[in-house]
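Priority: medium. Attachment 1 of 2:
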C-alpha cells in the first residue's frame, strides 16, 4: 500500500540513488581487488552506507532498494567478459565475497523494519 504521494522530488531522489549506486558499484569493483584486503572491507562499507543512507534519507525501504539496484547493475555489467577477453573481476574469494556480500547488504538494508515515529503506536501487536 502506498502511503505517501508520488512527487517529482521523490522520483528524482530515487533516480539519483540508482545513479549513485551505479557509481559506488564501479568504485567498489575497482577498490576491492586493488587494495587487498582493506579494499574489500571499504567496498562493502560503501554499499552499506549507500543502502542504509538511502533508506534513511528517503524515509522508506525504496530508497535502500534504489541504491542497491544501481550497485547491482554496475557489478553485473562489470563482471561480464568482453569480446577481447578482458574482465574486471578475478576468480577468487574476494570477488565472490564482494558480489554476494554486497547483495546481502543491499537486501538487508532494503528490508529493514521502519522504526515507529514518536507518539505513534508500533505497526505490530505485542503479546
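Attachment 2 of 2:
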Amino acid at each position: 500500500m502506498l502511503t505517501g504521494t508520488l512527487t517529482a522530488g521523490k522520483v528524482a531522489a530515487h533516480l539519483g540513488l540508482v545513479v549513485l549506486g551505479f557509481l559506488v558499484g564501479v568504485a567498489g569493483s575497482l577498490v576491492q581487488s586493488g587494495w587487498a584486503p582493506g579494499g574489500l572491507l571499504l567496498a562493502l562499507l560503501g554499499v552499506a552506507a549507500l543502502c542504509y543512507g538511502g533508506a534513511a534519507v528517503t524515509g522508506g525501504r525504496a530508497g535502500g532498494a534504489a541504491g542497491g539496484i544501481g550497485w547491482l547493475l554496475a557489478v553485473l555489467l562489470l563482471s561480464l567478459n568482453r569480446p577481447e577477453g578482458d574482465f574486471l573481476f578475478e576468480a577468487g574469494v574476494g570477488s565472490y565475497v564482494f558480489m554476494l556480500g554486497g547483495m546481502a547488504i543491499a537486501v538487508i538494508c532494503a528490508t529493514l523494519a521502519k522504526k515507529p515515529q514518536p507518539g505513534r503506536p508500533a505497526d505490530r501487536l505485542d503479546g
